Amino acid sequence: MLIVHNPHHDDHQGRQEMFRGHLVPCHETASRLEIVLDALRAGGRSSFATPGEADMAVLRRVHSARYLDFLAGAWDEWVALAPSNAGLDVLPSVWPVRGFRADVVPDTFAARVGLYSFDCGTPLTAGTWSAARAGAACAIDAARAVATASGPRAAMALTRPPGHHAGPDFFGGYCFLNNAAIAAQVLLDAGARRVAVLDVDYHHGNGTQSIFYERADVFTLSVHGDPRTEYPFFLGHADETGQGAGAGFNLNLPLPVGTGFPAWLAAVETALGRLAAAGAEAMVVALGVDTFEGDPISSFRVASEDFLRLGRTLRGAGVPTVFTLEGGYAVEALGRNVANVLDGFEA
Ligand code: SP5
Ligand code: ZN
């Protein structure tokens, strides 16, 4: 398996996220990627690459032009508000909820940050655009490698910040550019007639669902904590099945807090059955390992060894596969957990 890792990931290092009235240290840290890379290297893997420049035309097939322009310019606008802002991260504080207008883009930067985001836990920093853009490049290069006839059968975009909460024109959930959606679009553009994105992160892949909700060429499937109690709360219910041309091409399998490995794996197998029945010719796995029993912000009970079995099960889909790194916040176990998925996949 080819591992395309992001050499600019540590340009993005958020300081604090809002949690119940406090600003607390960000869970999504730069050490996450380093520990996974170290574990994969220690496991004797040899196929590593860093990406070329991100193809902006591909990004525009997934995200709106005005959102991409916002991300590219956000830091300079923030510092232009006050030079002292250079020492602070950007967090939104006002959002256009029901009844407000999102069609008129405000001139004021603080308002625009809210227009393009959905939570207060995702700081935007001086290096966010650089890191996210290089991460998208990892997804593009991983997908292009897998789509090449002589290329590897599987590849991983090993990157952060993660992507699956980022929608067509919004960031949130520690995510800015939707790497899994970008990989899916590249696989389609390379000739696959239908691609599936299977999201096994603890949290619902709301961004990916929103990007493809009215499309039949990408089947989005997500196994996750029930949004009635779990982040991102406002999407991810079982009755969201797609719309218009996309009707029938979105599957959500929410599971209760405390779900253990057997029930979780059964849901993944259900998703894989639907994926095969839909004739998906390639698969993107949005791989969050925050389903781990020791994860500090999640509540499933998957053990490190169980991730080997997940990998074997995913292999059973029998299609070219691109993995993207999403969540997983038990940093000490993160390397082992991700390596186990890939080892199980290749066993
Ligand atoms: C990519 C990804 O996994 N994003 C997840 C974003 C979750 N953000 C909200 C975190 C809320 C933290 N709750 C702490 C509960 C401690 N018991
Ligand atoms: Zn997650």
Oligomer: single chain
Overall body shape: globular
Q: Note the run of SSEs as H and E.
A: EEEHEHHHHEHEHEEHEHEH
Instruction: Supply the number of helical segments.
Output: 10
| Structural class designation | alpha/beta
Overall mean confidence score, pLDDT:
98
Write down how many β-strands occur, each being a DSSP E stretch of 2 or more residues: 10
The share of residues in helices is: 25-40%
Give a description of the structure:
The protein is α/β, with parallel strands linked by helices. Helix content is 35%, strand content 14%. It contains 10 helices and 10 strands. Strands 4-1-5-10-9-6-7-8 form an 8-stranded parallel sheet, sandwiched between helices. A two-stranded antiparallel ribbon has the order 2-3. The chain is globular and about 55 Å long. Zinc ion (ZN) is lined by residues 201-203, 288, 290, 326-327.
Which helices and strands occur, and which strands form pairs?
Layout: E1 2-5, E2 16-19, E3 22-25, H1 31-42, E4 48-49, H2 56-59, H3 65-81, H4 109-115, H5 128-147, E5 154-158, H6 179-189, E6 195-199, H7 206-212, E7 218-225, E8 250-255, H8 261-277, E9 282-287, H9 306-315, E10 321-325, H10 331-346
Parallel strand pairs: 1-4, 1-5, 5-10, 6-7, 6-9, 7-8, 9-10
Antiparallel strand pairs: 2-3
Helix pairs in contact: 1-10, 3-4, 5-6, 8-9, 9-10
Bound molecules: N-[3-({4-[(3-aminopropyl)amino]butyl}amino)propyl]acetamide and zinc ion.
